[in-house]
Amino acid sequence: MTLPGLDVSTPLMQQYREIKARHRDAILLFRMGDFYEMFEDDAEVGARTLGLTLTSRNNGAAAEIPLAGVPVKAAAGYIKRLVERGFRVAICEQVEDPKLAKGIVRREVIEVVTPGAVMADDLLEERQNTFLVSVALDGGGTRAGFAAADLSTGELALESVEAGGGALEAALQRYNPSEVIVAEGAAALAPPGVLVTRREGWEFDVALASEELARRYGLASLDGLGLGAGDALAVGAAGALLRYLGELQPGGLPQLRRPVVRRAEGRLFLDAMTRRNLELVEPLRAGAQDATLLGVLDRTMTPMGARLLRGWLLAPLTDPTAIAARLDAVGSLVADEPRRTAIREALDGVRDLERLGAKAAARRATPRDLGALRDSMGCLPRLEALLGDLYGLAAGFDALADLAAALAAALVDRPPAVLGDGDVVRPGHTPALDELRSLRDGGRAYIASLQARERARTGIGSLKVGYNKVFGYYIEITRANKESVPPDYERRQTLTGAERYVTPELKAYEAKVLGAEEEISRLEERVFGEIRDAVGAAIQRIQDTAGRVAAADVLASLADAAAAGGYVRPEVVDAFGLEIVAGRHPVVERVMPREAFIPNDIRLDAAQQIMIVTGPNMAGKSTVLRQVAQLVILAQAGSFVPAREARIGVVDRLFTRVGASDDLARGQSTFLVEMSETASILHNATRKSLVLLDEIGRGTSTYDGVAIAWAVAEYLHDHLGCKAVFATHYHELTQLAERYPRVANFNVAVHESGDDVIFLHRLRPGGADRSYGIHVGRLAGLPTEVLERARVVLRSLEAGHRVAATPAAADQLALFAPAEHPVLAELRGLDLDGLTPREALDRLAELQRRIALGGEG
Ligand code: ADP
Ligand code: MG
């Protein structure tokens, strides 16, 4: 690579330094010809991160300047890697033609790419949003306003959140943000690993932000957006967000749509742990994408459908009417297989309307992108015709016919990936362009005729007319025929075996044709720009249609999953009870042979508010517990459920917790974490909530664990009155049912024959009488001696620690105290007055002997 001198005092380095001064927190990619160069610290970081060779220029006496570069052609991959590691990358381009530049070429940063602000396809997940979320907190830290933007789709959402105890974090995590903006000094709520960008406090100013929003969207007041008095923080957050994005995208943000105000009301609240434990969209073990609820359910045909389905699963509804509307729509498509298939076929041709539209608005769409838009729009009339009464999508459906027609008229069938790489504009669209093209193409015929004429005139059969970039058109004649060259030929270039000439006629022709080529590319660029901008100006319409297409896609996908999986329509009502008949775990049943999964019934209601599920390891406790949660989420999201029947009283919050040692993925899991999570449930659950606790208390010693689980269950029963399922291998907890009327015992059945245990995976009433760890140890192949010894130890532990049978004991801990020795009872019962001294001595001796023997009573 050749570089001009990098002396710090050169104009180039001065230009670099000026630009870099404005982008100190970014890695600056400085365009120089076919390379992006990084200098100084950026070069060092870049070389290390990207595995590039670090070079340096020694400028004599002056400093050595480290430098590293990447080819422009391969830059996307490098930018992606930098951004994935949390860097900001400022892309500085040459903004004038180097040939026309006087002195040093003008350069400008045209874009700063950050983890939360990406537009390029290579940096985006097709089926997920990339959100940048700005967070404004009030002084107390219990209220927050969010503004979330996805640059690639043009989505902008505002949300106000109010609640303590981790609710703010939970609400933020629902966006799965790639980057979070907060004011200097404010608490960063961002999940670990997410880039936090700090901005000055005044940028969150509400008055400034209101002005900016009103100006940007041409509004007299913000009332039209549906913002209320409680949304001031969210407005402030939006102000900071827009200012930051404006800096990152100096070209403007035309793709950003009017903000949509999101309300937490009407949504089933799922905290981050619950989403994770239930593997709703993300598997606990990396790479097991199919092992998520989304993985099982997602049969969407379009990327925006996939993104919407994810959103529906992460924020199910709580209004039975709204849920019923979705279920009706899904139901109609389950029942009508031909229509469902037809809709999915129509969707098959629809590409990412939402992102393509945003790209057009941001003037980033390529000819191929516009072609994809045209083809997608072409599928809309068919889709529209199939919508019928589906979810109210047809009313006001805009098939974008005018845009489709304009694109169809303007673009060739297969537009090139980039402008300038072949014809973009369809013949017949722009008369001036057609004329120029016929001049250019007519030229080919003309060259052929010229060649024939000159061959005849000179008698040289091998004479040919050619073209190259440096010399333009020429006539080539082999050296052997040099003698026959006519006098009007003018020599241009000598090759080893041939000479190249021009003639006045050829020169005149060349001027005309080259002029045409240039004119053609200029005109194509203009026509393409016009059509792209026309499409971009219709962004709001395109996005509205994209939203309807996405909804149709999600509904058809849910219907398809329901039909394939044999799901039923749940009845979702405003009631307390929850009843599932022959329910299945949607994910677990997938990894088994058909019919191998054992369905189970669940009933929770005012009479049976808490279920304690006991049973040995591997019996299926966790499976049945998660199944309840997943079915509730599916039903409230508007999906059919894997069950024979399901009646679900809407739940306002759903919590699941997994005892610390069961939570493999977290690695350094601690009992403290488990307890603080449990605390947050107890603070946030209401009577309408559903709490699912799996092996809670497991992270500590048995008695601690049992005691805590016991106290939590009591609290849920007496204070919160919510529905709950406990899965536990502590069979001690079965005693809860004896003391509390609304607690019921269940166990997951196993069949024992001799020392063998067969897992039936069937839930049945009643508590397990003991744990079966030793049986599992046997299944796992522990040596016989170890198993035998374990059995002996277990027996003596059980004898010494048997739980008292008397529920009357006021002190709960007494429940777990060792049972008293039978000898004591006998002593107490002795009628001393009825004994002779001799008899008394005999009895004493006997009792002493029995105590000496141990607990054999
Ligand atoms: P536990 O929590 O009681 O230790 P799990 O719920 O983790 O047990 O279940 C262990 C395994 O048993 C599961 O991975 C699954 O393969 C199988 N299993 C659980 N429930 C069922 C069921 N209802 N039908 C068939 N197999 C099941
Ligand atoms: Mg378990």
Provide a short characterization of the protein structure.
This protein is of the alpha/beta class.
Describe the secondary structure blueprint for this structure.
Elements: H1 11-21, E1 27-32, E2 35-39, H2 40-50, E3 55-58, E4 64-71, H3 75-84, E5 89-94, E6 107-113, E7 132-137, E8 143-150, E9 155-162, H4 167-173, E10 179-183, E11 195-199, H5 206-216, H6 232-248, E12 260-262, E13 269-270, H7 272-277, H8 293-297, H9 303-314, H10 320-335, H11 337-348, H12 353-361, H13 367-378, H14 380-387, H15 401-410, H16 431-458, E14 464-468, E15 472-478, E16 490-494, E17 498-502, H17 504-537, H18 539-565, E18 571-573, E19 578-583, E20 600-604, E21 610-614, H19 621-637, E22 645-649, E23 653-658, H20 671-684, E24 690-694, H21 702-720, E25 723-727, H22 736-739, E26 743-753, E27 756-765, H23 773-779, H24 784-800, H25 812-816, H26 822-829, H27 837-853
Parallel strand pairs: 1-5, 7-10, 9-12, 10-11, 13-23, 18-22, 21-25, 21-26, 23-24, 24-25
Antiparallel strand pairs: 1-2, 2-4, 3-4, 5-6, 7-8, 8-9, 14-15, 15-17, 16-17, 19-20, 19-22, 26-27
The chain binds adenosine-5'-diphosphate and magnesium ion (MG).
Magnesium ion is lined by residues 621-622, 662, 694-695.
